[in-house]
Amino acid sequence: MSLEGTVERREGSPAGNGNGPVVKQPAPPARPTYGDRRLRLNPNTDHKPDRYDDVQSEYDSAIFSSLERHLPPSMLDASRDAKVEFMKEILSRYLPEGERNRVQRHKEYRKKLMSAYQPLHKELYSLHPSAFFVPSFHKAINDNTEESFRNFLCEPSPGIYTFPLFQPSFCELLLDEVENFEKWVNTVKFKIMRPNTMNKYGAVLDDFGLEAMLNKLIEEFVSPLAKVFFPEVGGSTLDSHHGFVVEYGKEKDVELGFHVDDAEVTLNVCLGKDFFGGDLFFRGIRCDKHVNTETQPEQEILDYSHVPGQAVLHRGRHRHGARPTTSGHRINMLLWCRSSVFREMKKYQKDFSSWCGECQREKKERQGQSVAATKLAFFKAGGGSNT
Ligand SMILES: [Zn+2]
């Protein structure tokens, strides 16, 4: 047995909230086009980007600062307005109009939720590293070297990193907050959006006020790891995320099919509580083209048992699923970390999948064939004999 059926793409933020009228958006103004001027693959790290906090846009201001380093050199000294226009033009190609309307509707949904929901534990809504994280994790990130990371985490299979992350008291507070949120949702009969297309239970943390805290958590504590371990999938340019909890158990979701995440880098942390089963299974990293190919049994199979407080960090394209949680109640926090730069680059670059296990296997096979062909030609030509 090497592959458990067809891989699904697990999408975030389902479209439409079915709650109140859809706000019709004015048609977007005509935008100047910039021909085929392209972003640079490698960021200009010496360039200090402008601040975009005050720019009115459906995109997070951090995306502009991050993209700016990838602008063509001729654009770097342009006015901030010109840069914004150029970047909006690129981003609008990335988000078609239907998607933009969806983003706008989601913004309004979130505003509505946040103005009505009263947080239970206010201390969760800003990042307190020493209260949230176990000291060894905090220290490894502060030391900020590959060596300090490697001394601290385990890599049970290539590209999968596990490590203790949250203190038990933090897990408890977060579980409590999620429970409080769900109780509130039920009391006021607010129709909430579920975290993605595959989970019917759970909640989007970003939707009820935790977005800023999670942004900081990713920027300061996930990005340093992603930069070192996943640079080839945009790990050094993470600039947005989707943060949510999923719930498994008898009256919740039981298991999760085989899939890849809509993320460049995924952080999956078990928060509790008591449960049996629910193991994660991993089956190799794949590009779009190869997402349904066979698993290589010696290198690509890993089963992992969740431990509360412990995190698993992997590429979004690392195929995985969750086995049934056979008893009890399991809640995990997921952070899907994304890179707009990586997604934009992927469109221009043909060979953009050096990280795919199947692309690597094919390449090796081609190399093997060409070595064999060279050898054969060599022997046919009489090489290798002493006469
Ligand atoms: Zn591939």
SSE layout and pairings?
Blueprint: E1 8-10, H1 61-68, H2 80-94, H3 97-116, H4 129-132, H5 135-143, H6 146-152, E2 154-157, E3 160-164, H7 168-188, E4 203-204, H8 211-229, E5 240-249, E6 256-261, E7 265-272, E8 275-277, E9 280-285, H9 297-300, E10 301-304, E11 310-315, E12 318-322, E13 325-338, H10 340-348, H11 357-380
Parallel strand pairs: 1-6
Antiparallel strand pairs: 2-3, 3-11, 4-5, 5-13, 6-12, 7-11, 7-13, 8-13, 9-10, 9-12
Helix pairs in contact: 5-6
The protein binds zinc ion.
Give the CATH class of the domain at 8-13 and 125-346: Mainly Beta
- CATH architecture assignment of the domain at 8-13 and 125-346: Sandwich
Q: What name goes with the CATH superfamily of the domain at 8-13 and 125-346?
A: q2cbj1_9rhob like domain
What is the distance, rounded to the nearest whole angstrom, between the alpha carbons of the first and last residues?
Answer: 52 Å
Bound molecules: zinc ion
Helical percent range? 25-40%
Q: What fraction of the residues are assigned to beta strands by DSSP? A: 15-25%
Overall 3D geometry? Answer: globular
Number of helices: 11
Could you tell me the radius of gyration in angstroms?
23 Å
> Under CATH, the topology of the domain at 8-13 and 125-346 is which?
Jelly Rolls
Stretches where pLDDT is under 50 for at least 5 consecutive residues are 13-35
Report the sheet with the most strands, covering strand number, pairing sense and barrel closure.
8 strands, antiparallel
User: Count of DSSP E strands?
Assistant: 13
